[in-house]
Amino acid sequence: MYELFFEEFNKKVPITAEEQEQIKHYLTPKKLRRKQYLLQEGDVCKFIAFVEKGALRAYSVDENFTENIIQFGLEGWTISDLYSFLTEEPAVYNIDALEDSELVLISKSAHEEMLQTIPKYETYTRLNITGAYLAMQRRITTIISSTAEERYQDFINLYPHIAQRVPQHMIASYIGLTPETLSRIRKKLSSGK
């Protein structure tokens, strides 16, 4: 069950078979059906989820009941409401499965214990948080300084695998567009104008 988790871990921080067995004791497998919630707004996020198989999304819902997607999570990625996880305050995001999914969960207590007792886990966590911060900074810069067409092109270039697996209205939400605007952009790009 933990094959991809350890494959990704080893890409960032090589570990021995013994260290892998030690870490395994802290991990919890979880399966979600399509449309099933992993986290609902208002609950405290008690885990970080690594996606072994499937696709998830993290999103908020505004006062007009519009979904605002802030993150996708596909195979090899982690997904969580990190603020809620770290502060133990209620989550502001919902996380649900876009496909039947298999996850590896790391609870708050397991996370804290591994940070203290497994130095390579601390390094792995630091690298993940740094990568997430850089991705968030790039996304913010793109949203505030790019045209709608540039945002879509940037998304397609960075995440072609996501574009093939999620509905267009979710891509529109992620890049801050209405589905209608995205449809016009896609039509314009396909006609070569």
UniProtKB/TrEMBL annotation:
Q: Does the keyword Cell wall biogenesis/degradation apply?
A: no
GO MF, one term, reads: kinase activity
Source superkingdom: Bacteria
The yes or no answer to whether the keyword Zinc is present is no
Cyclic nucleotide-binding domain location: 15-115
Keywords assigned by UniProt, alphabetized: Kinase, Transferase
Q: Which CDD domains match?
A: CAP_ED (cd00038)
> A Pfam family matched by this chain, by name?
cNMP_binding
Q: Which SUPFAM superfamilies match?
A: cAMP-binding domain-like (SSF51206)
PROSITE patterns from the UniProt entry: CNMP_BINDING_3
The protein's name: cAMP-binding domain of CRP or a regulatory subunit of cAMP-dependent protein kinases
Native organism is Pontibacter chinhatensis
